[in-house]
Amino acid sequence: MSDKNKLFWLAVVFALFYFMPADSYRVQSGAVEAVAMLHEYAREHVLLCLVPAFFIAGAISVFVSAQSVMKYLGGNARKSVAYSVAAVSGTVLAVCSCTVLPLFAGIYKRGAGLGPATAFLYSGPAINVLAIILTARVLGVQLGVARAVGAIVFSVVIGIAMSFLFNREEAQRQQNFALAEDIGEDKPLWQTIWHVVSLVVFLVFANWAAPREPDGLWSLIYGIKWYVAGVALLSVVFSTLRWFDHGERESWLESTKGYALQVMPLLFAGVLVAGFLLGRPGQEALIPSRFVASLVGGNGLFANLFASLAGAFMYFATLTEVPILQGLLGAGMGQGPALALLLAGPALSLPNMLVIRSVLGTKKTIAYVGLVVAMSATAGMIYGTFAA
Q1: Which of 47, 96, 194, 346 is deepest in the core (most CB within 10 A)?
Q2: Does 370 map to a domain?
Q3: pLDDT of 342-363, one tens digit each?
Q4: What is the reported pTM?
């Protein structure tokens, strides 16, 4: 950033705080909610969500060769394989829009094509089996099915659209990866897979949310989550000490630290802003919740577009979008806008956008966010027409 731009943003921040009505109840509520949301985020999403994700991204960057990533997710990989891998990853990981970011950055920087990488970026938080099942049970089977179908289709369409929009830049980028020296794997591939999969298993089970019903398969899995997570963590420790030398372990830690330094400051800043504007579920911040609810009734273009935009800028922790939608539907929200928010909200957030921009740049980020918002609003209008 140039000195002129820095000066401009300093002036903007100064003017914002200079003219802010600090004695206003809404401003004070927003400030409290900003701190409370960051506190909640730090306690519930950093140690067990983001930290393992940083280590996974670092492991991909250090232990997985660029050629291996390009084979399955690169621009020249078979489209059916690349997009299938990207979409399936979402059903396995069940992460939120922030936890997926270091994983996305890891595969993108190792040679994954823009299309498959952005398909993974969307599918990670959107194609969440637990969230879809919860949606069907709480909000209705019809809305749950619509969410599942929409999320799967969106992940592929958004990836293909991004690849098409930036075809020339992506072709040059893929050529640079192809020309890079292929140093190959310096150890058996199965050892690298074992190590990364162990990290992923720990991430998934350590963050397995409690089911709403006390019996059934999900409840059984929840009951053993810490045993599975513990075994996975022991496997990570064993494979790290047994199969990787001191230099490789140091490189892994350096790569992990790099992702943390890139992602964490932007995430924390985004969470503070989101908390100040919208607050936590059930809490009032600068923008009144009744104001949001009043704008998403019916099934018009504005209601669906507003729901999609609101969902894109709000932050949803995994599974929290369902009770939020339950409250909004009770306040008069239409079925179409409900689906629009479900398709845009979990996959995007203001913190998420800030980090995506640091990885992809401004143009690609605007295109990605625009595609998610536009497609979510369109899907909401179509669904609302038939659901009415």
Answers
A1: 346
A2: yes
A3: 899 888 888 888 889 988 999 9
A4: 0.74
